[in-house]
Amino acid sequence: MLDLIKSGHAYVKISGAYRVSEKAPDYKDATPLAQALVAANAERIVWGTDWPHPNGGSARSIAEIATPFAIGDGLLLNELPKWVPDAATRKKILVDKPARLYGFDPIAG
Question: Does the reported pTM lie above 0.90?
Fold first, then answer.
């Protein structure tokens, strides 16, 4: 994955720390992974909450709706400055890249 990001052939959304972490609610053990992804190529990174945090493993059958993970989106967002200390890089991840990828103007709203 790092090679794909470095080469510019893929985008990665840094989110869902709760899926790779065993240290809720601050997910400190996910920090090195997020930092490695950003260091590989910050131009190819976006961020998202993953709301509503689906937990497909909680459904017993295809007809049953899975219970979402109970996650604090604010807690996830609080980790972003730890993962990406540089404010200009965070703006790229939160504003500039999503605007380009999804075709909206961040100024116009």
Answer: no
